[in-house]
Amino acid sequence: MGQRWRAVGVLAIALFAVNVVARLVIRFGFDGDDTVADRVSLGMFGLLGLILAGVAFVWGGRRPLAQWAGEVSSAVGIALGLTVLVGPLLVGDNPFAGGGGTLFAQIGLYLVANAVGTLLGYLLLTTLGRDYRSRSLQRYAENAVAKPRRVVRR
Q: Which residues, including other chains, have CB under 8 Å from residue 16's CB and lie 6 or more apart?
């Protein structure tokens, strides 16, 4: 049980660290340039999606979807809370300075990027036939063929 929460914590910290790095790059490298800030933010969302696509690809091959989907969603929820509430404080901003519209737009973009990344990773895994369920069905089919047919005596 501790290993599962450790993996959730590591994933949440990794997702939050990507956001912190993007905020620091925007703050110290391109402060005041909105065009570059938008590009860095877009790159951050793309990187978050790639991280979760990789996590879905690896975890989806090892465990059933019902098991790892809850862990990924927990990690995303924790990272989202840290990103929205703690992230702006690290660069000297107020989390609610932009208003409700900016806050909800950030939450929406974060959730969409993470959902798309996770979905693409799992769909690729399923397409290749390497997900947990496909491999279980393949093992079952191999075992069913390997057993000799029982002869019924009368």
A: 79, 82, 83, 86, 87
Mean residue pLDDT across the chain: 88
Residue type, 108: G
Task: Fill in the DSSP letter of residue 57.
Answer: H
For every residue of 104-148, DSSP letters joined together read HHHHHHHHHHHHHHHHHHHHHHHHTT-SHHHHHHHHHHHHHHHSP
Q: pLDDT value at position 38?
A: 86
Q: What is the DSSP letter of 86?
A: T
Q: Do the Cβ atoms of 114 and 49 come closer than 8 Å?
A: yes
Distances (CA, A) of 96 to 31, 42, 87, 92, 102: 19, 21, 12, 12, 8
Please list, in sequence order, all residues whose beta carbon lies within 8 angstroms of the beta carbon of residue 82, skipping any fewer than 6 positions away.
12, 16, 19
pLDDT digit string (tens) for 87-115?
888 887 887 887 888 889 889 999 999 99
What pLDDT, in 10s, does the model give residues 23-37? 899 888 877 778 888
Whether 22 contacts 43, CB under 8 Å: yes
> Can you give the pTM of this predicted structure?
0.83
N-term to C-term CA, the chain: 53
